[in-house]
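Record type: monomer structure entry
Structure origin: computed from sequence
Chain ID: A
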Amino acid sequence: MTQVLFDPKNCDFAQFDPETRRLLRAVVDWFEARGKARLLQDDKDQVWPTDFLDFVKRERLFAIFLTPAAESGGDPDKRWDTARNAMLSQIFGFYGMTYWYVWQVTILGLGPIWQSSNTAAKQKAAAQLDSGEIFAFGLSEQAHGADVYSTDMIVDPQPGGGFSATGAKHYIGNGNLASMVSVFGRRSDKPIIDSAQAMRTKPTQTDYEGYLFFVADSQHEAYRLRRNVVNSQIYVAAFELDNYPVAEADILHRGEDAFHAAMNTVNVGKFNLGFGAIGACEHSFYEAIDHAEHRILFGHRVTEFPQVQALITDSYARIVAMKLYSERAIDYLRCASPEDRRYLLFNAIEKMTVTRQGQRVIEDLADVIAARGFESDMYFPVAMTAMFGLPRLEGTVHVNMALSLKFMANYMFHPADAGLAALQAIPGAAVAPAATARAVTGALSWSSRKLAPRLGAVVPPLRAGFAAATYAPVPTRHDAADDEFLFRQGPSSGLGRIRFADWRPVFEEFRHIPNVAVFLEQVRAFQGLLAAAAPTTEQQRDVDFLFAVGELFTAVPYAQLILEQARVDGTDPAVLDQIFDVFVRGFSANAVALHSKPTATPAQQRRALDLVRRPAVDRTRFDRVLTEARSLAGTYRMTP
């Protein structure tokens, strides 16, 4: 990797087409010319970013990046290109969440529009983007949060046609100025779904028929802007609609399609959470390492203290891991199709794990930078506030962990390791000594790999399972293509039918790296736990217990994509070993947490401790990564 952390003053964006390179460079130059003092003063004074939006309008930035090719009017530069959108998200995160947030919420507001069959609404949105307008996503409510079944935005059918909408929305970014607000509501003449019942039994299409998405204008007289609900430069609105006229031409989605539009919008839009986190962590790392390398305490540089060296090295490794995972996740999203929906798991981890890793980076760097991180001329306080928010936007961690768990069985076992299910039938497997359990797990896994393909040739269910998990290789995607599938994802259901290719080969390819090998041992033991001591029916209703299992599970696909991207980038083996040193320690800590859960069965407690490992310690490797991290001191300082 020739440039591990993003350096605005030494980046050429060579992976992109000429117009994308020009625009990304223009964004960086705008921030640098504006300077750090202005950036921080506007944040302190909570100034709405009018000058930023003037720049966006002048460069047609959002219009070019956020208009799908189908709505481009023939403009060859307009397309929805996830790779360049992610890069722009990272840049905005690097300079401040105010700018990232305006962009992010505009993406969310556009989601239901671009998915709609309402041609007039799409043409209007494209024209509004060309005019430099921003958009908003009117989904959440103060009383119900993410429980969209219980929406109190009531839409009354009118005798002469059309509707009248009355109700309140809460925590709506850009709700002060958005030219088009995509609003989720329900008809007053249709029944409401009981959300508690919906969690147990899927509602029918008839149950959904009263729900809809429509567009509203934040400047309309019946749109009542109440307040900004946060003390910040961004505007997160509480607004009410008071008999707001909704024409048939304003309707985007009806019935169950409205729910799918909401979920699919989140798949597209909140994918950017991780990239905003990466940018914030990169800028913070530059500040922290610069301060620590040049501060002398008790005759030593701060970077010479052992505890600081551990924090710096781990933080650097975490940031590199975040970047590797996220780059690879882009490829899966861009290659997605109705036949390959693996992106739904990888997106959930992008939103959840990458943002939480970012929070951990900021926490550790705060111990490095200490009081300097609170001073008024530092970007670091801006990042601290942002990084405690990103994992918590609309319950990001909780929602995405619950989603990830839906994929666990298929990812971990089907079809390649289906034979491990035999552990459930072996007497005493749940309480066998750790060495015995490890041997049995390994043998069954090897047998599955060797025998299952042969059985698949003659056993129809196995044959179908293998076929469902057979995918063409996923290439690196920086090509200038329009990701049109994102706006025709279809129903958000059917997750249990999604199959995953065998995750083991990439781990085995990197087994020469000591801590990859240790981590693979832990994952094998985790498979054994799931097979021999699976969650009981009662535990499957215990969210606290399931989240402990989910912490272990989601570490596996996170590591898988990191290794896949490391193969592409030629990542330094020492850095990879340090990344997996962090992973081994984290996996062990999460295994102990599962062991300690009050509802864990004796068998689960025993098998959980099988996962605990000590990472392979190598001082030479550690020093190499530390030296690489310290070398970044002084390489980037934002223009004053």
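Annotation 1: Confidence is low (pLDDT under 50) at residues 418-426.
Annotation 2: The CA atoms of residues 172 and 237 lie 5 Å apart.
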